[in-house]
Request: fold
Amino acid sequence: MTARLPVVVLGATGVVGQRFLRRLAAHPRFEVAHVCASEKSAGKRLKEAATWRLGGEEWAGLGDRVVAACDPDRAFAPVAFSALDADVAREVEPRYAERGALVFSNASAFRMEPDVPLLIPEVNAPHLALVHEQRRRRGRRGAIVCNPNCTATVLASALAPLRDVFGVEAAAMTSLQAVSGAGYPGVASLDVLGNVVPFIRNEEAKVEEETPKMLGRLEGGRVAPHPLAVSAACLRVAVVDGHTEAVSARLVGAPSPAAVREAFAGWRPPPIASGLPSAPRRAVVLHDADDRPQPRLDAESDGGLATHVGRVRACALFGVKFVVLGHNAERGAAGASVLNAELALAEGLL
Ligand code: NAP
Reply:
């Protein structure tokens, strides 16, 4: 049996941190060595430091673990999963990377740095090679690997098959985003129940800048961003988990909706991505029913790691339009980082 690699979870008490613990407690290749959070939680057991917010076994059986501060001198492992907020991540993640860890981050702090991979294994696995450039340029032994913003992840996962089969020129996206995307307690219930909030701070800018980087090509040690134009409108709705996005796309050659459906149905990610231990059975699931995908019915399938597409039809403005759904806290956060780490392992970086 292959030995499991020790990992540290930074921000283990938070909403994304708890999802990390649930995924990692039974992971075949990773083993939780340290759980870290703020100084206010350090020294307490997990179950005393915070409240478990997910289904399944409380704290995934790790509730008696003692929380450490996010300090690589006191709690180090060669793999760090970070569920820290951006301002904390900006301080903590480089310290772990300098000490030699590969840091798999959910925070926005370093996503747009030119030597930091903004990685989705199914979409841009070759971008992981930026790790070598980052180590060389910054003289650090480890490196930071980011997963993209959750809304951008869902969009890029749907555009990747269209990029590969036809070429994408432009995409306009309107999101209907789950409240769990705002962490816990997130959006006040009185603001969102029976309501739609038409503003999520910084979200549209993240989608518009991260998507071209993700869909771009690695050339000579840097990512040449994909030249597509992206326009995003992000709305918060009273859904618990799962971001739904209505997308209109202008594709090279103006293919018919039937050809686009065929492209979604036939597309497969590169074998290195589909062979990872946590990979969903189908990266992109095409739904035929007129009323799918729906967050309640589809977001959790395949551990929340599949991307669901449906309602592919003609668009009078852009050519084709469709609906895409993905789990914001799994495909867009914890599950995404774990997949990225599995790719690093498969590529021999760990
Ligand atoms: P959260 O629930 O607020 O958790 C934050 C974590 O960071 C907690 O463990 C907290 O520990 C720790 N922390 C706070 N201040 C700290 C400090 N000064 N030093 C060390 N640790 C500190 O946040 P979240 O919703 O899980 O989000 C975490 C990250 O993931 C964010 O960057 C967010 O943007 C990103 N993200 C979230 C989602 C989502 O669906 N929620 C999706 C994609 C990306 P204490 O308990 O001790 O305070």
